[in-house]
Amino acid sequence: GAGVSQSPSNKVTEKGKDVELRCDPISGHTALYWYRQSLGQGLEFLIYFQGNSAPDKSGLPSDRFSAERTGGSVSTLTIQRTQQEDSAVYLCASSLEGTGSYNEQFFGPGTRLTVL
Amino acid sequence: AQSVAQPEDQVNVAEGNPLTVKCTYSVSGNPYLFWYVQYPNRGLQFLLKYITGDNLVKGSYGFEAEFNKSQTSFHLKKPSALVSDSALYFCAGRGFGNEKLTFGTGTRLTIIP
User: Fold this and answer.
1) Tens of pLDDT along chain B (113 residues)?
2) Straight-line distance from the first to the last Cα atom of chain B, in angstroms, rounded to the nearest whole number
3) Contact criterion met (CB < 8 Å) for B44 and A107
4) A window 79-98, beta carbon within 8 A of B
5) Which B residues in the span 22-41 are in contact with A, Cβ-Cβ below 8 Å?
6) Would you tell me how many other CB atoms lie within 10 Å of the CB of residue A46?
């Protein structure tokens, strides 16, 4: 079956521009996660959705970052007024269920964002 | 706050030798622990997980991991390394009821032919 897909795979933008990153989770997965992976760093948790709601937004680095999920499926991560420090690989993952579950997360291939 | 540590940034092992990639954790309550592998220019792939029960967990590609509660460790192991095992390995964990999965910083495993 289809896995988690993300688009675009690569995005180069100029400092100050807004960008939108898209994630299509595995069908039937109610939980969706966004992470950021910077060069040489581990994964940094950004936000988690259970259905369309985001009970945990604690990882968003600043108010320039926002995310939404519609129809319990597709999610978009928006970064406004991008800065060079936003350059990273943004990973999306999905899993069955949410709170209290022990299901593993399935990751997409990521979007490599470069801010010039 | 929960945390996961991978004390080695880099591990080199000769092909055919056993390998170990170390991981220690700190979570509240019973831990859920995971290992993921990342190949170049690809997303993370799930290898195995510990939820409860047998301390030795078997996963994909011949990998296994041993849960040790007293040492709060969850080391990844394989009896005989292959060159194709060369990749970046991440340990992750969370406490029961906590949806935030905390990742270690990763260990780059290189298998030398």
Assistant:
1) 889 999 999 999 999 999 999 999 998 888 999 999 998 877 899 999 999 888 999 999 999 999 999 999 999 999 999 999 999 999 999 887 777 888 999 999 999 99
2) 41
3) yes
4) 91, 93, 98
5) 32, 34, 36, 41
6) 21
